[in-house]
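We emphasize that the prediction below concerns an isolated chain of 507 residues; any contacts that depend on oligomerization or on bound cofactors are therefore not represented. The input was used exactly as deposited, without trimming of termini.
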Amino acid sequence: MRIARYTLLVIGLLTLAGAVALAVLTPDRTAQTRTAGPTDRRLEFPAKFYWGAALAGHQAETRQASDWGAFEAEVERNGRFDHGREFGTTLPGHIRDFGAWPETVRRQKAAFDSHYEEDVAAAADMGLNALRTSIEWARLFPRASQTEPDPAGLAYYDRLFATMRAHGITPFVTLFHYVAPAWFFEPDAAGRRGWERADALAHWERFVRAVATRYVPAVRHFCTLNEPMVYLYSGYIDGVYPPLEHRPDAAATADVYAALLAAHALAYRVLHEAAATRGAIVEVGITQATQAFAPLRNWHPADRAIAALVTQAWNWDFLDAIDSGRMRIAATGIDRPIPGLAGTQDYVGINYYTRIYIEGHLLDPTHPDVRYRDPARPAEPVNDMGWTIYPHGLYEVLRGAGRRYGRPVYILENGDSDRALDDRGRQDYLAAHIRETWLAIEAGVDVRSYVVWSLIDNFEWVDGFDARLGLIAVDYRDGFRRTPRGSVAMLREITRGNALPARLAGR
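Result of the prediction step, given as a token string:
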């Protein structure tokens, strides 16, 4: 979600004259918040539709020997817990109020790895037939010298996936959810770290082959990379995620960008080879963090033009590269072929949460402001994290993905922050976005899943533990006690009927 610096960088070559010209071709900002369509009847979903919830290893499980684990340990040692009043304002090198929590909480997060049987059973009880989780690279390969995965790590995932199968839940597995082993960021002989190491893809291939050998065909759905644009700009420009770098512009991230694309292509090949040798089928893709970018002032040509450019760069550039085999980074002039990349997405993964406003400046068109809500609309609905609630944006993103790529679309994250146990805000949010999903299907998009972030409250990266996005509340100060929120009962009604009831469609 940290895109403010990103917007400055991707438009470095944009001139005011270009902004005016592009504005002519840019759609107006719509006042519509919900897509036109039925609100008074039952909306039925396709047979075999996946209803799921999601979580990620580092956010919900015990800290591993990862780059994020090393970052947290350093934050603890130096007491770097400062942040602004609102979410999304934590300073680089800090984690919001991290020191306010007991050491057991900081290390175990939501303790999913010791409560997974309870949590998976709760997911099944609410009628879910899919659970998205991650296999942590650092859990399988905590040491650089390993040539085989750690047996204890494999045993944990064996138990987890067996528990899912016992409850009739299909695993959706992410391989890189922002987190890598700590040793991966030690410099190589040329001083390069992480994805820029000369041996980066060799290490990645060892990890992916271990996963493929063990879990294909027990796992069919793989997401190689979670939100690569968030990772690139939070880790290499904003410097708030490991590796905490502050590179000067988007072009300076090109080698990491290219390495992520190559890593995806390699994983796609390895997973499909494993499936072919076993007469099995796998689906492999990535999931992209998409937003509904809008001009803050619809009459302003710079706002409109820059919002359109940011939409292309943030939502579509990475997916376009996988489709075409060429890495083109908007407004940088970079156009680089990636061998073996073209066509390596069996589906398009979509994460969607909110609308974001772009404000340009006539005298400085290359430095717009990014706003999470419109100050001219003080009554605009927002969640606990201050994010604007804009369901129509999900419909537009789904339509865009369907038109551009012609592949199945999986919604792999959509959710709301609402800490109340009677979480009326989350219930309204989910009902509205499920309706938008149905409308996209009616419009011809092959949407095959709706996955809520998240199954349980968890660690929300540099925003710490204060954001509460779980369907199930976690009491971190009472032994990680779980309490279902009101949205659980609502979701159970939807999933068991495979439909959005009429009374919820109009909510």
